[in-house]
Design a protein that fits this description.
Number of strands: 10
Structural class: mainly beta
Helix content: 10-25%
Radius of gyration: 20 Å
Order of helices and strands: HEEEEEEEEEE
Oligomer: single chain
Distance between the termini: 39 Å
Strand order of the largest sheet: 3-4-5-6
Shape: elongated
Strand content: 35-45%
Length: 169
């Protein structure tokens, strides 16, 4: 019981420190941003700060080089594996029965500054959701073959839309 109380107290202290800003990145008001709109760690705010057009804004962090993020999702007898390499997302279709790739790595042709991505499936679509270096969240809808007893097909071209701005960006 004492151990549970210690863990709970430690978690409460961490939450309190994060809430007051101890040990977190400092937020700064952006020029021309609405009251209360800030940016942190060089990610543009919802207040309209755009480094490409206003060099007074903090520069977005660089996109890591190489392959650095992976995710997967099942669609019938096909597993779709996404990987982020050099800021771009690629998807591989794998036969779940044999474990062999059905296709090569297919580029989603979405944003070129991706730092994180997830993959999910529903119906006849694979959804690739990405976070860009500028803090944008975008979702790609990629059509696939209907799930059957035999493995499906690779994804087709994905159509990306911008989702709402996440909190804290």
């Amino acid at each position: 019981m004492k151990q549970k109380r210690r863990v709970a107290a430690s978690l409460a202290a961490a939450v309190a420190m994060t809430f007051v800003g101890v040990g977190t990145a400092q937020a700064a008001k952006q020029p021309g941003a609405a009251d209360g709109m800030t940016a942190r760690a060089g990610i543009a705010s919802a207040g309209g700060c755009d480094y490409d057009h206003d060099h007074n804004c903090p520069k977005p962090p660089p996109v890591p080089r190489g392959c650095f993020d992976i995710d997967s999702g099942i669609h019938g007898m096909t597993k779709y594996v996404s990987v982020v390499c050099n800021g771009r997302v690629f998807v591989l279709a794998v036969n779940e029965r044999s474990g062999q790739p059905i296709s090569g790595w297919v580029p989603t042709l979405g944003p070129s500054n991706v730092i994180d991505a997830t993959v999910a499936e529903q119906g006849n679509n694979v959804y690739v959701t990405v976070l860009t270096a500028q803090g944008q969240v975008r979702e790609g809808t990629c059509a696939v073959a209907p799930p059957e007893t035999e493995p499906g097909l690779p994804i087709t071209t994905c159509d990306f839309t911008t989702l709402t701005t996440p909190p804290g960006t």
